[in-house]
Specification:
Nucleoside Triphosphate Pyrophosphohydrolase; 23% helix; globular; NUDIX_hydrolase-like_dom_sf; metal-binding; manganese; CoAse; coenzyme A diphosphatase activity
Length: 195
């Protein structure tokens, strides 16, 4: 899949109502901790790649897990998209001016108490990642073509406090992508498969 086809497929399907996402963040006292991430698609050597990071093991929330660039919504952020763009710049040096945000996927709620809004974007020009070691242990990419193959995406039911939850996971090389990140990848892939 080429970048133009990716953009067309993503934008052809109806996206959720984004008024709340783009509006003022006046409800930060919500019980869930609000976060936003950037699902950045980068064309490298003619192949679309998803940008992912591995979190350092010293972090309190989700240590050592694979994630998208992103993080907690701050009061100074204009909206959720601003959160995702700010975090991507802080974590991997991806400047907001170097991305085209295509839209948002529905917010993902985790049983660990987060509500994560993922923004899908394409990277305009090649960039050299600048890693913040306090936030990122590793930067890597995964071919979108690999993720689009359904047999590479798995779901298992797990029980937590008597409630069953679907947990998504995607093995890729030495990496084990699971939880919210894998669920958002699965949602993106199913969204792209509609067309």
């Amino acid at each position: 899949m080429q970048l133009a086809e990716f953009t067309t497929r993503f934008t052809l399907s109806a996206l959720p109502e984004l008024d709340a996402i783009h509006g003022e963040l006046s409800h930060l006292d919500n019980k869930l901790r609000l976060a936003a991430v950037l699902i950045a698609v980068h064309e490298i050597n003619g192949e679309l790649q998803l940008i992912l990071t591995k979190r350092p093991t010293h972090l309190r929330a989700h240590p050592g897990q694979i994630s998208f660039p992103g993080g907690k919504v701050e009061r100074a952020d204009l909206n959720y998209q601003a959160t995702a763009l700010r975090e991507a710049q802080e974590e991997i040096g991806l400047l907001a001016a170097n991305v085209d945000v295509l839209g948002a996927l529905p917010a993902h709620k985790t049983f660990t108490g987060f509500e994560i809004t993922p923004f899908v974007a394409t990277v305009k020009d090649a960039f050299e990642p600048v890693i913040d070691p306090g936030e990122v242990a590793e930067y890597f990419t995964v071919p979108l073509s690999y993720l689009l193959k359904r047999y590479n995406r798995h779901t298992q039911l797990y029980s937590r406090k008597g409630v069953q939850y679907p947990v998504h996971f995607i093995p890729y090389k030495q990496h084990f992508i699971w939880g919210a990140t894998a669920a958002m990848i699965d949602l993106l892939c199913r969204h792209l498969e509609k067309h």
